[in-house]
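User: Hi! I have a protein structure encoded as tokens and I'd like to know what sequence might fold into it. I'm fairly new to this, so please keep things simple.
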């Protein structure tokens, strides 16, 4: 192994790979140290894996929903406003994962290569062995995660072949060849699966203390490790690090992408594979009945959030960011103007129309009992949980929000720069007990999930319907129908009529597909899924974003923003800067 590389060399390699700016590192030359010098400095060595965690794309909200039919931005300088209006390009890509993910993978590769040489303790080589295993397992799992995001953002067709990205499975140094072609999508998926298997071999399912010696893995018993040794490394103090369960979830996410229409022609992954991967996790979570009863309002379950501690997750959340301290930034961006917010994300009429009536029927169905003159009455309860519409209440004092043109407040349709452009504001994700009044501002704790269990249940429903039909159970004993019924029951849908609409489509795979996709749209709205879902499904990207203009109690649906996407934009581009540096790279068709 070329472990004699020094840290300056590592940074220079990263500059070649990801920035091309040599002068970035001039001031740091005095800090040059050999990698070997980190072997007795565990915090310095662990900085490599920490860098991987810091680069996880879902560490913050992207709100790329504003470039879909679900939402628009009220700020014309917003990057997703520009993406949706035809300015998405290989040299203007706010969805770029190339630079960030490849930099993370370089750090992770060095950690994998050097972990066995690091002294994580000063007194116990056996515990060093356990720490090395855990950190390598984390690095393999994180490398799979970054590969998933790279494939999602940059995988695509080029000259009739479905390509992924360049596979980086060992550290690059100054003698490495950088000008190499992209691997195929299938090769990238197989690398991802291999990394997940490595993570599962090295990591526990969850980080919890074991109470007895006989619960310790056999390989550590054979080495003579004690229960205390095991708990020191793999116990509850490590919660929120990447675990075996999280690696399984990443595999399920990637498999669904690979089995989807836009990618299936270049992948051997099937919907049955995706269903099996998600089904494993659901079975570990107690099956269909394991769906968290309060999972619908995970972001505003105040008592639950305020009492989280010790790395514990709410039942709805598989993996999350650390809580941090009380904050109000999210509300400041998205609260309506009368609540001292900037109303940034405006849900569309398109999305509002996707919520069924409370009896479970789509609003355009003759049995829905939908009333166009009273459009928010008798609707899916998720509508009022997720979206502020005319007459909703919001903020710490439950103030009524009037979005009508003649309502007399700045919450009204297009009243001022920070008013709604669609007649709606986002409610989901926000804590209504945040007060933004300048005389009494207060923040609150926010839980930010990286992976929610509801996503895993929806992965299973989508994949199982395609693999086995609506009622087929595969190897896990539950069906797509079972999952969707549980999700809709939790939402309060069809409770008075046995969810008659679901019952009417349970024998029709095509109708169930549309229902599952709609449930995914509603349950995961504003969480950064819709942009990618429309593309992997090969759905229409150019449906205009619509809003509602209310005046004198009359409702008028209006076009708010046309969506300008070419057919090739079901795939994202390879960054132009990379193509200019390396002629072995091929761009995705159309870019």
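Assistant: Happy to help. Inverse folding works backwards from shape to sequence: for each of the 591 positions I chose a residue that suits the local structure. Here it is:
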């Amino acid at each position: 192994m070329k472990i004699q590389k020094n840290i300056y060399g590592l940074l220079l390699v990263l500059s070649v790979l990801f920035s091309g700016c040599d002068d970035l590192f001039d001031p740091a030359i005095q800090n040059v140290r050999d990698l070997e010098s980190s072997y007795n400095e565990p915090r310095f060595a662990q900085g490599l894996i920490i860098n991987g965690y810091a680069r996880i794309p879902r560490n913050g909200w992207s709100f790329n929903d504003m470039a879909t039919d679900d939402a628009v931005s009220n700020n014309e300088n917003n990057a997703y406003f520009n993406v949706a209006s035809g300015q998405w390009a290989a040299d203007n890509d706010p969805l770029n994962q190339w630079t960030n993910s490849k930099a993370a993978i370089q750090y992770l590769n060095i950690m994998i290569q050097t972990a066995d040489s690091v002294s994580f303790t000063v007194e116990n080589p056996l515990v060093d062995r356990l720490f090395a295993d855990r950190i390598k397992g984390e690095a393999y799992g994180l490398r799979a995660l970054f590969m998933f995001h790279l494939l999602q953002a940059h995988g695509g067709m080029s000259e009739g072949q479905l390509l992924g990205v360049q596979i980086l499975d060992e550290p690059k140094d100054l003698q490495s060849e950088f000008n190499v072609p992209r691997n195929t999508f299938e090769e990238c998926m197989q690398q991802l699966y291999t990394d997940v298997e490595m993570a599962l071999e090295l990591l526990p399912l969850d980080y919890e203390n074991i109470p007895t010696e006989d619960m310790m893995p056999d390989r550590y018993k054979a080495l003579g490790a004690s229960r205390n040794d095991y708990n020191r490394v793999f116990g509850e103090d490590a919660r929120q690090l990447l675990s075996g369960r999280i690696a399984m979830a990443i595999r399920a996410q990637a498999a669904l992408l690979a089995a989807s229409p836009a990618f299936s022609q270049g992948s051997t992954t099937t919907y049955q594979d995706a269903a099996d991967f998600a089904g494993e996790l659901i079975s570990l979570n107690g099956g269909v009945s394991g769906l968290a009863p309060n999972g619908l309002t995970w972001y505003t379950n105040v008592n639950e959030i305020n009492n989280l501690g010790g790395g514990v997750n709410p039942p709805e959340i598989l993996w999350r960011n650390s809580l941090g301290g009380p904050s109000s930034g999210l509300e400041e961006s998205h609260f309506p103007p009368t609540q001292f917010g900037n109303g940034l994300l405006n849900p569309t009429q398109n999305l509002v129309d996707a919520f069924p009536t409370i009896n479970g029927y789509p609003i355009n169905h003759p049995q829905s009992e939908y009333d166009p003159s009273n459009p928010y009455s008798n609707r899916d309860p998720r509508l009022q949980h997720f979206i502020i519409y005319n007459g909703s209440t919001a903020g710490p004092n439950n103030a009524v929000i009037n979005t009508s043109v003649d309502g007399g407040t700045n919450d009204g349709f297009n009243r001022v720069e920070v008013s709604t452009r669609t007649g709606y504001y986002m409610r989901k994700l926000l804590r209504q007990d945040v007060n933004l009044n300048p005389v009494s501002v207060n923040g609150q704790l926010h839980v930010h999930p990286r992976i929610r269990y509801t996503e895993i249940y929806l992965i299973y429903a989508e994949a199982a319907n395609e693999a086995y039909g609506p009622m087929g159970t595969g190897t896990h004993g539950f069906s797509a129908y079972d999952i969707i019924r549980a999700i809709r029951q939790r939402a309060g849908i069809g409770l008075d009529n046995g969810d008659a609409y679901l019952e009417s489509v349970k024998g029709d795979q095509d109708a169930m597909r549309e229902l599952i996709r709609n449930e995914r749209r509603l349950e995961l709205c504003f969480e950064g899924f819709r942009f990618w879902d429309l593309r992997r499904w090969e759905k229409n990207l150019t449906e205009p974003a619509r809003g509602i203009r209310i005046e004198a109690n009359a409702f008028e649906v209006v076009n708010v923003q046309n969506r300008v996407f070419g057919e090739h934009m079901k795939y994202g581009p390879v960054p132009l800067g990379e193509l200019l540096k390396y002629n072995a790279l091929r761009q995705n068709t159309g870019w």
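A useful reference point when you look it over: Residues 354 and 518 are 7 Å apart (CA to CA). Feel free to ask if any position seems puzzling.
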